[in-house]
Amino acid sequence: MSEDWPPLPERIQTARCLLRPFGTADADDVYAYRRDAEVVRYLQVAQPFRREDADVFVATQILSDWHERCVWTMEHGGRVVGGVSLRIARGKRRAEVGYELARWLWGRGLMTEAVSAVIDEAFRRLPIIKIAATATAANARSIRLLERLGIQREALLRQHWVHGGRVLDEVRYGLLRDEWKGLQATDSEP
């Protein structure tokens, strides 16, 4: 039954950005924003991020199995400035969202807009019951984004992983289908 799930759209247009599949020509833009140590501070990526790392990253995204992991590059102003992914666990009827954005666009609501659009598409099209997200407890920006979207904090995993020689706590968040429906009803009220 889960094999019959409809695919999520490859292109999602929001008010200010286009989410679309990665292409090989995107590597230069990916390198431009990912070489900023602050952008990749909490990501498990090579640091320093080199140009060849961008090529490998983009190739990996292109080869992603869309039935298990949807990966959109985020285009804004004609440039790739970030990305949103949705890892789908069909057997568990849930998904996990991930995201990254060029630092020069932080604080403008662009990622909130993009992640919200992906969540809406996922709940509208897939029979999932939950969308989860994970953030490093020290990543206040990511935590604010999740909470702004109405995603609830569910757990704190103390000293859960080591990154860059630091032992970090991790927080887990989740949004249930019924909670999403309630948020949709609230948004549509006058």
Q: Can you describe what's shown?
A:
With 190 residues, the protein is an alpha+beta fold. It has a single domain (10-21, 68-188), classed as Gcn5-related N-acetyltransferase (GNAT) (Aminopeptidase, 3-Layer(aba) Sandwich). The chain has five helices and eight strands, in the order ββααβββαβαββα. The chain has helices at 27-34, 51-62, 110-125, 140-148, 177-188, and strands at residues 12-13, 18-20, 69-76, 79-89, 94-101, 130-136, 152-163, 166-176. The protein has an eight-stranded mixed beta sheet, sandwiched between helices. β4 and β5 form a beta hairpin. α1 crosses α2. The mean pLDDT is 93.
Main traits of this protein?
globular, 8-stranded mixed beta sheet, 30% helix, 5 helices, 8 strands, 190 residues, Aminopeptidase, alpha+beta
